[in-house]
Each structure stands twice: as C-alpha cells, then as structure tokens.
Amino acid sequence: MPVSHFDYEAKLADCAQTNHKALQDLFHQEAPHMLALAVKMLSQRDDAEDIVRDSFVLIWKNSASYDPKIGSARAWMYSIMRYRILNRLRQSGRPAPVDAEWIDNLPDSAVVDPETSTPRSLAQRLAALDDTQRRPILMAFYNGFTYDQIAARLAVPAAQIREQVRAGLSTLAQGEPA
Q: Which Pfam families match (predicted)?
C-alpha cells in the first residue's frame, strides 16, 4: 500500500524539472507494487522487471505531459506500465489473462463510501460491480480488447458490452456500489 502522505503529483512535477531525486523517490515508493502487478500479468519476473524499468524511463521522459485533470498521478504511472505490458504480450503472442484477483493490485483511487463515510479503493469499487460490468472493463483494461472483441468472447452484442462498460465506469466514477 502506498504511504498516504506521498505526493505523486509533486514528484512528477519535480521529475518534469529534471529532479533525479524525485524519480528515485517515485521508484522506491512504487516500483515494488508495479513489479508485483507486472509479474502477475506477464508470469515472467525478468520480463516484468524490464517493463517496470522501461516504464520508469517513460515516466521520467513524459512527466511534463502528466495532467492532473485527467486522473491521479499514480494511475497515470500504472497506465504507462499497462501499455508496455500489453505491447509485450502482443509481441510475444501471449494473451493477457483476465483474472478478477488483479483488482487487488490496482493503484488505489480512494473515494468516500456515501453510506459509511469510509474510503473505498478502486479495487473495492471494482469488486462491488456486477460481473457483467466488471468483466468487460477488465478485459478492455488488461487485454486491450475492443468492444467487438469482448462481445465475441462473451457471446453478447457489442452494443450491450458498450452499455455495460459505460454503466460500470459511471458507477466507478461515482464511487457507489453497483
């Protein structure tokens, strides 16, 4: 779990100003979590280590392009790694597995649960979604599948998949249970 007072946005801003210590701080804070997720997605530690290393190079080079209006800095970092992983899997011809247990390794994006006034992480919110919404979202996120590809794999119309993903993402954005 990340340290609650760690300021990812400030560290990325410092990286954009070529502050090497900020990159080192980001690496020490997040690399173990990223490596755990990469190993789970790739099933090969050497590949996972390469991906994490490459991801931090890209984080350094692209830190000035991070926009806090788009999402959290931590999620931005993980999206860089996710694209690297998907590219590696495509190049090797290996499919990305779609396991709901990956939810536990997603970066937290805590929101307050309106019923209990306690923070709910992205993992908790994803787990609360109905499987008909959660599964297509995970297939799109982890496998990079299009609506049509998800529809073919789940044997449902693409329009239905679009609606399930839209509804699921809306629920996630609101931080409410499904």
A: Sigma70_r2, Sigma70_r4_2
Distance (Å, rounded) from C-alpha 65 to C-alpha 83? 16
Range of the domain at 122: 98-178
Give, as one character, the DSSP assignment of residue 104: G
- Check whether residue 9 and residue 79 sit in a common domain: yes
- Report the chain's terminal Cα–Cα distance, integer Å: 25
Residues 126 and 139 in one domain: yes
pLDDT digits (tens, 9 = 90+) for 133-165: 988 888 887 667 788 889 998 999 999 999 999
pLDDT tens figures, 49-90? 999 999 999 999 999 999 888 778 888 898 899 889 888 888
User: Do 51 and 114 lie in a common domain?
Assistant: no
**pLDDT score recorded for residue 100:** 43
| Antiparallel, parallel or unpaired: β 119-120 and 111-112 | antiparallel
Task: Count H helices and E strands in the chain, helices first.
Answer: 8, 2
β-partners of residue 119 are 112
Give per-residue burial for 91-115: e unless 16+ CB within 10 Å, then b: eeeeebebeeebbebbbbbbbebee
15 and 89 both lie in a single domain: yes
Residue 135, C-beta contacts closer than 8 angstroms, at least 6 positions apart = 98, 100, 154
